[in-house]
Amino acid sequence: MDTAQDTRTPTDTSTGTAPDTSADARGLLAGRTVFVTGASRGIGAAAARLFAAEGARVMLTARTGERLKAVTEEIRAAGGTADHTVCDLADTDAVRAAVERTVDVYGRLDAAFNNGAVALPPGPLDQAAEADLDLIYTVNFKGTWAAVAAQVAAIRATAGTGAIVNCSSVGGWRANPTLPGYGAMKRALNSLTESAAVTYGPEGVRVNAVAPGTTLTDMVNTWEEVAPGITDLLNAQTPLRRAAAPEEIAQAAAWLLSDRASYVTGAVLPVDGGMQAA
């Protein structure tokens, strides 16, 4: 076996030319316009900060205007480019309007991170109120469906090609007796991600998802208040024996949105400290 190092420059098999690495030198997402839902806190806010630091122009959306404004101003103070618009994922007209505003402000859309979601208190499915189930369906699934549809249309009309990442959860891969409604909607989101990847791949639009494990967000803090000790229990089931910081989930999303993941589509990437492997 020849173990000599191959020092040739790899070629792009679609064009026969060396890949352009200049964007990586300037930032992983340099020159891109990225739309982020649920950007006022947690994973969404961490993602917006990271994407801007990696050179993207970012549009932040969420229901809470004051928190959105604060994160936007923080990004600008750090030298990034960011704007925000209030958007409730339960309102599909508002979702479409937010995507349209992104194009109005920046002139294009290249990528999106659909992170926004709501959760119900832990408990068996027979104790969940029907109104709560309707809400989690409307926000976590229907809202993301509307967002993906609007984002594909905007990418098609402006950038031509692009990438979308949805935020799923390891809670949607197996039985989830503690959060049955949440888990069901996340499993549905995985299917939506795969279907969109197959549908829009021929146009050059990649669609993937990240599936976080236990992550230190307000949502997990709320679960801990209702079920004390649940975080420690989940960490004990995680090979890395800890929860993730929101920034660690954001890093995975940034990679999937970047050209470094140019041949990845239809994937649901676990970012869970090994929980699903255990």
Can you list the strand order of the major beta sheet? 3-2-1-4-5-6-7
Instruction: Tally the structural domains.
Output: 1
For the CA atoms, what is the radius of gyration?
19 Å
Can you tell me the residue ranges where pLDDT is under 50 for at least 5 consecutive residues?
1-24
In the CATH hierarchy, the third-tier topology is known as Rossmann fold
| Average pLDDT metric | 89
- Strand tally, please? 7
Distance between the ends: 36 Å
Q: What is the CATH superfamily?
A: NAD(P)-binding Rossmann-like Domain
Structure, explained:
- The chain is 44% helix and 14% strand.
- By secondary structure, it is of the alpha/beta class.
- The protein has a single domain (28-215, 247-271), classed as NAD(P)-binding Rossmann-like Domain (Rossmann fold).
- Strands 3-2-1-4-5-6-7 form a 7-stranded parallel β-sheet, sandwiched between helices.
- α6 links the parallel β5 (162-167) and β6 (205-212).
Question: What is this entry, summarized?
Answer:
This protein is an alpha/beta fold and about 280 residues long. About 45% of the residues lie in helices and about 15% in strands.
